[in-house]
């Protein structure tokens, strides 16, 4: 960590779009004194369908933006970046960076599971990163993975309950019903908004793991260890590379509150 890093410096969070605001919501809940700078690359979303090389390039640019804002920690709220780019970029980054894969692994390790499921974007699932990291830490664990591409537009459209999302959930998640999974990792920041239909599809016996909740706990531990906890009231600054239509309406669903100000910056 840089020697000039100060406890009052903000936490930086970035994502390919606005889904990472679900992670911001969890951080703000557990660490209300921490300021947060959020960058969403909404002009180039989604990352999940792009090549690894393009995801790496975009992620490097996103991280550079946050470093210019003198952040003390960076959270890659994008699962596609966490699984495809960070293994190549970590050595370039001068502050601690938290990915979205290790929090899911950490949550799974808290209980004894024999069979789990993972859902995410094409880039996240095809990378196999969750499977590799889980198998490094847990022996004899059976892992079943599936892409759920329609969950993202459903979440952004606000269709998170009712017949349509339930039918989509049943279409995707019926894959897991005969596997006997005991837990399901939500491997995309949009998916927590569809928690109720996912729960209804899988039933009450399957644990639903939201890595964003674990991220906040990891940050808290890291700040305590580095003596970098802020003791002042936190604030949130949001930067986007494009302001989508109906942004305020959509973002309120992700963040859980009204957004007062948005700053537009170029992603180039």
Explain this structure.
This protein has 268 residues and is α/β, with parallel strands linked by helices. It folds into 2 domains: 11-99 and 213-264, Rossmann fold (3-Layer(aba) Sandwich); 102-211, Rossmann fold (3-Layer(aba) Sandwich). The chain is 43% helix and 16% strand. The chain has 12 helices and 10 strands. It has helices at residues 21-30, 52-68, 79-84, 86-89, 101-108, 122-127, 129-137, 151-157, 163-177, 195-202, 211-225, 247-255, and strands at 11-15, 36-40, 73-76, 97-98, 115-120, 142-147, 183-187, 207-209, 236-240, 263-264. A 6-stranded parallel beta sheet has the order 4-3-1-2-9-10, sandwiched between helices. Strand 9 (236-240), helix 12 and strand 10 (263-264) form a beta-alpha-beta unit. Helix 5 packs parallel to helix 7.
Strand content: 15-25%
User: Which architecture of the largest domain per CATH?
Assistant: 3-Layer(aba) Sandwich
Highest-level CATH class of the largest domain: Alpha Beta
- Tell me the distance between the termini: 27 Å
Low-confidence stretches: none
The share of residues in helices is 40-55%
Task: Give me the Rg, rounded.
Answer: 18 Å
């Amino acid at each position: 960590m840089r020697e000039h890093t100060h406890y009052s410096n903000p936490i930086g969070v970035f994502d390919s779009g606005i889904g990472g605001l679900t992670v911001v919501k969890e951080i703000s809940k557990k660490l209300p004194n921490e300021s947060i700078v959020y960058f969403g690359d909404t002009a180039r979303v989604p990352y999940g369908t792009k090549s690894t090389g393009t995801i790496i390039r975009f992620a490097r640019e996103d991280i550079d933006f946050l470093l210019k804002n003198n952040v003390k920690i960076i959270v890659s709220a994008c699962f596609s970046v966490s699984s495809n780019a960070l293994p190549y970029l970590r050595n370039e980054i001068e502050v601690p960076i938290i990915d979205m894969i290790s929090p899911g692994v950490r949550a799974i390790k808290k209980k004894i599971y024999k069979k789990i499921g993972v859902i995410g974007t094409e880039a996240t699932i095809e990378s196999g990163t969750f499977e590799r990291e889980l198998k490094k830490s847990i022996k004899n664990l059976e892992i079943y993975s599936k892409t759920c591409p329609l969950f993202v537009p459903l979440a952004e459209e606000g269709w998170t309950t009712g017949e349509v999302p339930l039918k989509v959930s049943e279409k995707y998640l019926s894959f897991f019903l005969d596997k006997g999974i005991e837990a399901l990792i939500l491997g995309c920041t949009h998916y927590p908004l569809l928690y109720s239909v996912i729960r209804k599809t899988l039933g009450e016996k399957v644990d639903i793991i939201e890595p964003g909740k674990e991220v906040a706990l990891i940050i808290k531990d890291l700040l305590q260890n580095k003596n970098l906890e802020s003791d002042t009231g936190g604030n949130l600054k949001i930067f986007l590379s494009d302001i989508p239509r109906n942004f305020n309406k959509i973002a309120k669903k992700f963040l859980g509150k009204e957004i007062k100000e948005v700053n537009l910056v170029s992603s180039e």
